[in-house]
Amino acid sequence: MKSDVKSQQLRTEANRLYVHQKFYDALLKYNESLCAAESESENMGLAFANRSAVYFEMKLYDKCLSNIELAKKNCYPEKNLEILKKRENKCLQLLKQNDDANQCEDFLSSFELSYPGNDELPFIANCLEMEVDSKYGRYIVTKRHLKVGDIVAIDEPTFKVIKADSRYSTCYDSNVFQRCGGCMKENLLGLIPCTSCCRTMYCSIDCMKSSHKRHHKYECEIVDELLTSGIMHIVVRMLLEGLSLFDGDIHEMEKFLTQHTEPMTIFNLNSKSWKSVEGRRKMFLAALSLPSCVSDEKVDLENYENIFMKTKKLKGLWNSNESFIRKILVKLVHVGTHYVHGIGGWSLNQKFNEEEPKNPSFYQQLNGNGLYLFCSLLNHSCAPNIKRLNVDDKVVVIVSRPIEKGEQLFDSYRPNFNNQAKTIRQEALMKDYGFVCDCEACYNDWPLNHNLNVFSEELLEFAWGLHEELPFMTVADAKKMLYKCYDAIAQHHEHFPSAELIVLQECVSNCLILITKPSLQFP
Q1: Is it the case that residue 71 has pLDDT exceeding 80?
Q2: C-alpha distances out from residue 63 to 42, 58, 95, 306, Å
Q3: What CATH number should be reported for the domain holding residue 82?
Q4: In the beta sheet, which residues pair with residue 131?
Q5: Domain C-terminal end among 301, 323, 344
Q6: C-beta separation of 61 from 87 below 8 A
Q7: Is pLDDT at 353 greater than 60 in this prediction?
Q8: Does residue 504 form part of some domain?
Q9: Of the chain's two ends, which shows fewer C-beta atoms within 10 Å, N or C?
Q10: Per the domain annotation, does 424 fall within a domain?
Q11: 324 and 460 inside one domain
């Protein structure tokens, strides 16, 4: 519930943090204050104005100016306008003297497909295609030899949600008040609040309007419960976004799905039509088609029913067609459980990583969950030949071991063979996915890290030396070392698995993460 009293308390806390130059924490508190402020209250203008002061201290003058404008438009007291005008004039002067270089970075521009894109799906290399058989179901193969380091797909989530439940206590506020509830961009924390709830912010008015139309008009009253509900959040989000494609008419949605029963995958779609209602409906069908067989025996929908009973809109939907909603929820629970991937990313807090004991420079927090229609077709191997890299909310699929023409691309659903014993891996895969893994690592019972063979002490020394140096490297140096690692892995791949190649693979991961780490972080 919006509360000016709460908003003022939060702004006071933020002011205290600002005085101690804890700018990241101050911005989060100002954002929380904005979310709590009542509509057309002075608290809105004051929070935007105070937030502009943080951006001024960070030399983010464009951000400072935009927040000054937001303060003026949101009931900032006239008696204090002179203060804002002085700050505004200083910003304008400083902008003339300095380039405002610390804008939101476009990390995706560093990654592009290594081969021409598919005619209808330009974010997937045209050498990849889907096949189907009784053992693997649907899977992805390549029509040409793929080299280590090749980028073969840049997949975008069809559905996504911010993740607030985490073993890291700092995740809740840093995600909810740092990232847009629609597109998940952090926008250097320069967000605007939902006009109704206290736990959703947006990067722009357009994103707010789009999110409200697609899902937030249903979620707004129950956002607190959804943010801490785990996989339930994205399951409900998928259902509600699907429903919005039928203007909220559950009967029209049922009619459409009854008429379209043929299984569909991303390879049946055309990206040019994705912004159309018909294109989005097909994407929803592809999501529902992911589970090859669905049983409702182990799906408990009690918590979902409880969620639907909390608002008038959702309760009306449930009561109007409960049997159909239950049927769709069972499918979506399977999708959410088996096909949704975590979305990793960086906090803008430079001290966020200090508590993480292993390689703090390479620790990303979990920002959200997303359903990726291409990546969902990748089968598992305990010795995967591709790596998934989160860049913003997208997944860049990179070849990590040579893949010959006609071979399958393999992801990993669990720790790799070198990090976990075969029996533990197989028990977990059977429990969570229902199959006995017979990948090359399981079939040959490849050893754990401490038992791996060494074929070159010189290469092992190089790999470990690089591993130790990486946390202190510049982005430019990391890019150079990335390609050296690619070359070494490709040149010596006949020795896989070996200690040298496993360490080099980890160096590749760390290089890639370092390349996508924001250069600007808030104290």
Answers
A1: yes
A2: 21, 10, 11, 42
A3: 1.25.40.10
A4: 139
A5: 344
A6: no
A7: no
A8: yes
A9: N
A10: no
A11: no
